[in-house]
Amino acid sequence: MAKQKSGDISEQRVTPLSAFLDLSREAQQLLRSVQTIQMAKNRIPVHKGDKVSGAYVVVKGCLRVFSYTPSGHESTFYLIRPGETCVFAINCLFNQLLYPAWVVAEEETEICIISGALYKQLFQKESAIQNLTIDALSSAVFKLMTEVEHLQGWSLSQRLSNLLLHQASDDNRVLMTQQEIASRLGSSREVIARILGEMVSAGLIATGRGRITLLQPSALARQISC
């Protein structure tokens, strides 16, 4: 992970990676001192152009990797969920590159940071680390291709419906503000508010402060397939 920004993250207790990775006893010993940190929601611990000093595995929460469009809107590359790592960071470690995007905590997030030297050492002989790296690469490629398809073929209304369905909890609630949704979709809050208003009028959703309730999830799904 890139150099920590002052006030963005604070040190927490060490969390073993064995909960997510099938590591050898030797590797577990080497990873005993791995740093675990916690990030508050909406913090940006990694900025474009930062030097990456290590790989990181999300233990709890979610990180979002994004960039900015020429108009100043955010464009999401992919999300990093528990048990996953960032392929951009891995690429920077192995090729001595600067980080090409920004990373933000979507919610309170806990991660383990593995130093670059140790990650490279483990990659040579630990199948769990090799699989983690390959999974990160294939997952990122799939997510990027999906995002490109959405940008090319889906209307903003369809992309919004898709986001709501993917972010909804078991009780059909989405805990996101209009600005957070706009940032995720690379749009403006005013445009998102207008489309949400249309969905409310159609009886598809109900809105409240910082939350959206899906009243007809199946109807939202049909909008995507149209």
From TrEMBL:
Domain HTH crp-type: 154-218
Pfam families cross-referenced by the UniProt entry: cNMP_binding, HTH_Crp_2
Ranges for domain Cyclic nucleotide-binding: 29-140
InterPro entries linked to this entry: cNMP-bd_dom (IPR000595), cNMP-bd_dom_sf (IPR018490), Env_Response_Regulators (IPR050397), HTH_CRP (IPR012318), RmlC-like_jellyroll (IPR014710), WH-like_DNA-bd_sf (IPR036388), WH_DNA-bd_sf (IPR036390)
CDD domains, per database record: CAP_ED, HTH_CRP
Keyword tags: DNA-binding, Transcription, Transcription regulation
Keyword Phosphoprotein set for record: no
Domain of life: Bacteria
Name of the molecule in the record: Crp/Fnr family transcriptional regulator
Source organism of this protein record: Amphritea pacifica
